[in-house]
Amino acid sequence: WSSARRVSRVVTVDVNRSVSCVRPGTCTIAYARGTQGTRPFAVSEVHGRWGVPAPIHGLASFGTLWCADAGDCVATGSGGQSTGILSQLSQPDVAQVAIEVHGVWGPARPIPGLAGLPGGGQSGIGAVACGGSGWCSVTGTYWPRGRPEGPAAGSRSFVASAHDGDRKSTV
Fold this sequence. Notes:
Layout: E1 15-23, E2 26-33, E3 39-46, E4 49-50, E5 54-55, E6 61-69, E7 72-78, H1 85-90, E8 95-101, E9 104-105, E10 109-110, E11 121-130, E12 135-144, E13 156-163, E14 166-170
Antiparallel strand pairs: 1-2, 2-3, 3-4, 3-5, 6-7, 7-8, 8-9, 8-10, 11-12, 12-13, 13-14
């Protein structure tokens, strides 16, 4: 491990961080910012210098991150409103993915097919991984609308795959 060092422009109210590094001095940190609601951001380090945080549009909460290089990443989270914890609890969470290409984040989009799964409703992504050939997969959990998440509520697992942003859902 190297000595700890400060990441500029990321403040102490930021929560739920994830980091992806492809080599020393080339990393991306994604995090949620805010005390009432959350707003996901990402900031990349290139050749040891941190850039300016950029919002990840369309995500109300941040989940996981994977990067092929600085500026080429996949971030997961859930969509919906981002106006505080009470409104987040009253609206169904829907698993979403945002893709960054050459430093520009595209809008987050829901994973297709989740609403049509048996007992589907709310969902969340637990992990994302990608291969060098442009294939990515996410895995997560879905559960019926209006019921708390967890095994007692009848939650089930899902996996979805994509090639260069063209997502295909599988169970």
